[in-house]
Amino acid sequence: xxxxxxxxxxxxxxxxxxxxxxxxxxxxxxxxxxxxxxxxxxxxxxxxxxxxxxxxxxxxxxxxxxxxxxxxxxxxxxxxxxxxxxxxxxxxxxxxxxxxxxxxxxxxxxxxxxxxxxxxxxxxxxxxxxxxxxxxxxxxxxxxxxxxxxxxxxxxxxxxxxxxxxxxxxxxxxxxxxxxxxxxxxxxxxxxxxxxxxxxxxxxxxxxxxxxxxxxxxxxxxxxxxxxxxxxxxxxxxxxxxxxxxxxxxxxxxxxxxxxxxxxxxxxxxxxxxxxxxxxxxxxxxxxxxx
Length: 291
Description:
The chain is an alpha/beta fold. It is built from twelve helices and nine strands.
């Protein structure tokens, strides 16, 4: 679409409210309510132009105002300990339960991980960007878990279809397959094997990209004990990878952080565009268009 036609379409569009934008994301993610790691900080109406990035703070809010955007959307949120614990439990306990792990067992492990993470969160500047948005009266929201759920499902469905009926899939095959997805192909940081080797058999493949952050080595071990052969994740600390290597019962492929974030983000954006909302990506979002 030419720039003049795009501008005209944006001018003629009715515009959406922040709630309508968020409802579209929730519907795509098959989520009924706003998760604790997401939300609308400053409400807005008649939104026609959105600036969307992985990390959006005061400079990006000022940039949006300067360039005439109606709303700023950040993927990454700034969460409290309570919000962090809630989303970690919600995602990991349910995933493990479906694999046969009792909820009481996984809950204790997840809570231990939440306590570990709480030390950094306790000293973080939790509401910095939110306070700036309020002072600027700039419509602002964070769409984290819905986007991650959308991306997680997309990658899981892609790999399931790609390797359906193939019991001899190796990690090298998975890495090659992931690079067929636009966001991974376009990223400078390619998928890598962190636990295992190219020749390692994959076994059952589980994509784990939602839940705010990595659940830690002890929780990840439960996935392997429950029958998962290979976890495909966004990121993992070196210490967790080392622990899992020592245990030597499963594999981990890291697809990439910002590129994985971008899969869900781009799908949300494409749906917003169907409603006439022009969205510009920045701050880490990887394009879904292969040039």
